[in-house]
Amino acid sequence: MDFTGKKVLVVGLARSGMAAIKVLKSLGAEVTLSESKKKEDIKDASILEDMGVTITDQSPEVFEGDYDLCVKNPGVPYRSPAMARLAERNIPVITEIELAYQVSKPQHYVAITGTNGKTTTTTLTYEILNKAFPGKAHLCGNIGIPLCEMVMKYNLMEEEGHYIALEISNFQLVNIDKFEPDVATIINLTPDHVDFMGGLDNYYKSKTEVYRNMKGDETFILNADDPVLAEYVAKYPVGCVSQSFSLDNTDADNYISDGYMWVKGEKVLPLDAVKLVGKHNLQNVIIAISAAKALGISNEIITEAVSEFTGVEHRIEFTRELNGVKYYNDSKGTNTDATITALKSFDKGVILLVGGFEKGLSMDEMKKYLTPVKKVIGYGFCGPRLVKDLVGDDGIVVENLEQAVNEAVKIAEPGDTVLLSPTTSSFDQYTCFEERGEHFKKIVNSL
User: Fold this and answer.
1) What share of the chain is helix, strand, coil (3-state, %, to 5)?
2) What are residue 63's phi and psi, to 5 degrees?
3) Per-residue pLDDT tens for 282-291?
4) Which of 9, 305, 348, 426 could join 430 via S-S bond, C-beta 3.0 to 4.6 A?
5) Which residues, at least 6 apart from 178, have a Cβ–Cβ distance to it below 8 Å?
6) pTM of the model
7) CA–CA gap between residue 346 and residue 293 (Å, rounded)
8) How many CB atoms are closer than 10 A to CB 371?
9) Which H or E element spans position 166?
């Protein structure tokens, strides 16, 4: 698409909006930014105006303007009246990932989505790619780095053949048009983002968009252990090569046996090379090595990268041991399935800190996994509801995370674990899960 003189509406700034604007302006587009903040509260307002960007609010009349295209920030609800009005007027709406894909030369994309495990899997995939293709491998997407930034930084509009490990959320997938990765996976499907998507079916369906345009010898890596995923792959068939993996059975294409991970009949990775704890991390690793083999990377490079990988920040991250009590930061545990995964990593003595923004998720399934939990402490907006639904009157309710940690310190004994795994997002008291996790670590390290 030739963007010269095209009128593009960018809805929502943040980092991805700014990255999209820089790409659009470099291509000669006329850009209008629609932002919920007042102009005087936008830190980069003067920079944007120097670039020739028109800054406006998000009042209904803005969406009646004359535009050729809209680039929507992933955090803007796709079912909002504003987006509905643009659809009525046949104005295409995409996210910055789709924009980056459309303006770039052909690259090698590994797209990783699912409910849990995305960041660990994407980061490990990048580490393998970076060893195999140094200087031409990049990590971006929902992990916090917009793909449009990579386009500008590495001149991807002119250079081709780079390898991109892309974490992609359902927020980004709902506005996919032509995006077509070389390799993709849906790690798992469990309830999340019901508030944003308007229902579980919408959420699960949105994940299948990752493979919608894939064909031929492109590879979709299929979790054969996930019955919900099986249901949705049956509803929305995969049009490319489908390569299954299983942690429980050896009749999949890729599996674990005799102390190794096998990919398509080849013994690829010794299990003792994996430094991450928990069965869920074996799943993350087998996906990453399956993607690497699909791209032709050697077993030696894969083993070297996996053996050096110790995990990602905010995901069951060991923070400190004090007076015999261990503290773990699992701020990225933003849904019940993520917290269940964290709880499976411990045997006993867990003081669990939960709370944050109210997503309305049921605690029924999580109640089955409270065996290692000694006490539940709830904080923040939905803390009282989570404690009530999980343990009734046996829990503790406080206002904020600092108070929660202090309560945990009072009751923790040597051998116990204090685990921040909130089960929900952070938006009642923090701007993101990273900020929440950093605050937890700061509190713990100051004890």
Assistant:
1) 40, 20, 40
2) -85, 5
3) 999 999 999 9
4) 426
5) 98, 101, 102, 213
6) 0.80
7) 32
8) 11
9) strand 163-167
